[in-house]
Predict the 3D structure of the following.
Amino acid sequence: MAAPRHKPRHNPRRKPRPRRPSTAVRAEVARFEAEAQDWWNAAGAFAALHRLNPVRIAFIRDAAAARFGRARAVAQVRPAARPERGASFNARVTPSGVPSHDDSPARPLAGLDVLDVGCGGGLLCEPMARLGARVTGIDAGAENIRVAAAHAREGKLAIAYRAATPEDLVRERARFDVVLNMEVIEHVADAGAFVETCAALVRPGGIMVLATLNRTLKSLLLGKVAAEYVLGWIPPGTHDWRKFVPPGDLAAMLAQAGMTAERAAGVVFDPWRGEWRLKADDTAVNYMMVATKNGPRREKSRRSRA
């Protein structure tokens, strides 16, 4: 497949910023790289993320649509598809319910530059691309990027994948309308520094969407012990409960980085339906948050840039 047509805007006259120390933890990166071949297996090591994806995608889509004046386009998007048990998502069936055809009218993110930090195998990058965004996915694990790029080629999706850290992009002075920071912060060495770095990648008027786990007794029992050792949803040792981040602490980190936490919503599992759903007043375990950066936003422009 040809190289992606659209890249984040860079100013060659600007000197690169001094290099920031990376917050990536090599052991954490290696753990996910070891399972890289399983990224697109909905019944494999990342089954929990496949189940979470419809909720995550809808939350991101709606947050971006609201911020950039695309609410009317969102109404055209079909309800999320529910794959058969054990089936893997491929290039033609997406967990967002978004058609994989490039001529789909349901492209509410058209014209927006989206960065997925810690993109793994591209489970979020591909739906964002199908929603019309110009997507860049970065991950510290080169094997994850290899798997993501190969899957994107199969689906004929123009996604710019790089084995890189957010610190690398800050040094290049890259900027994006939407920065995704999903289930990553609890795996880094310094959460505050990581948030500050990601915030530097958000354009004025843009947003950051984050997802993580709260540090409560309930999250220890459900998000750690049950998920890893009882239900087997994720491999044992995936999480360190001490690195979970309460919403108040995350909002404070964002404020320190020059962003405003606008809203948080809990994500809970419905055992009767066997699916995840939003529950605004229950952030005791999993939750997502939207933060904005002051400045003029690009409301209606969908003009492509070379």
